[in-house]
Amino acid sequence: MPRLWLALLLACCLPFKLNAAPLNTPLFPEMPAPAAAPADPPALVALGRQLFFDTRLSEPRGTSCASCHAPAQAFSGNHGSRIGVALGSRPASLGTRNTPSVLYLRYTPPRFFYQDDDALVPMPFGGFFWDGRANTLAEQAQGPLFNPLEMNNRNPGQLARKLQQAYASEMRAQFGAAIFQRPAQATQAASRALEAFLRSDEMTPFSSRYDDYIRGRIQLNAAEMRGLRLFKDPDKGNCASCHKFNDSSSNPARSMFTDFGYDAAAMPRNRRIAENRNPKYYDLGLCKTAAQLQWPDSSQWCGYFKTPSLRNVAVRESYMHNGVFSTLRDAVAFYATRATNPGDWYKSGIKFDDLPPAYRENVNINSVPYNRREGSTPALSDSDVDDLVAFLQTLTDAAYVKRKIESGNK
């Protein structure tokens, strides 16, 4: 959503100025261009693919990267969990966030701050995970291997032993004969191989109906075209203000359907998550990363989460950072009526109930369609929501079109 409202708040009401980028985060003079195709050796990509699907690398064994990032769900999914967050390698371990797709990650830039023509101060973009805590794809790939709620390796030594047992010759061929002398070096090498696979052409297919449309190969149907217009309309859906794309370019890399930024959209609390049974527990998102990176006044980013790409959104199991919605239509309808009909979403009776009261002022309430009064007419009608869902379904890559989609996503 447009971020001018926050820029004005920062400029007028806060005691510091973000005239330069915070520590360890560069200020870019302009948004980065789409990343070029990497020149990773095919053997390294193949090794990364093997690692991605290997169930021997978790503790206990039995869980791979693909267990949560399942090809059938366009490399998203929650490992058999039905509560919106992923099951880990241990029977009782459940995460606190929905698993995003890892397709198209080679286009995600490292963290940076950018100040556009409308903003008075720089705003954060880039990075990996919902909270931007990883700055590179290799760093992101390494995270789940050691997360106790995911693949649960205790330390680099434990993982390095597994790698040496299964991939000694392949890793020595890629990284040298001494690769296993230091466990940390071996785990970093595995992350580098995973990175090569994740940014390979296999993981950037650009084979959706939308891609064929901008290439001039097909026409979208009437509902899809209405949805496309609503998606772009700044007074209706206004989706494109954050989920950026360029349908006038035949280059699909110009249509990633995200600006790689962050927003405080105030999802309803997912009460199926075990940690959320504790009324004092809150997932604060970007502000934890901001505090670790020593950004000024990190609390202003509490409640902010990464804007995901909408490519292949129609085949995901759950939606939003906390997996609170199980259908795409509900996710779209939430955006349309959060402001006008909050009681439909916040079953606790408290608006923005997944944030502590002190941070609810961070929530985006000024961008369309969030800027309407409670009880007023929503910016989008029910038929508009249906048309937006129809358009979003055109973003599904060809390999996933025939996959079974839950009835609410049809």
Could you outline the blueprint of secondary structure elements for this entry?
Blueprint: H1 4-13, E1 27-28, H2 42-53, H3 65-68, E2 112-114, E3 123-125, H4 137-146, H5 156-175, H6 183-198, H7 209-214, H8 222-232, E4 262-263, H9 286-292, E5 305-306, H10 328-337, H11 382-392, H12 398-401
Parallel strand pairs: 1-2
Antiparallel strand pairs: 2-3, 4-5
Description:
By secondary structure, the chain is mainly alpha-helical. The chain has twelve helices and five strands. It has a domain at 206-409: Cytochrome c-like domain (Cytochrome Bc1 Complex, Chain D, domain 2, Orthogonal Bundle), CATH 1.10.760. Helix content is 30%, strand content 3%. The chain has a three-stranded mixed β-sheet with strand order 1-2-3, with no helix packed on it. A two-stranded antiparallel sheet has the order 4-5. Helix 10 (328-337) packs across helix 11.
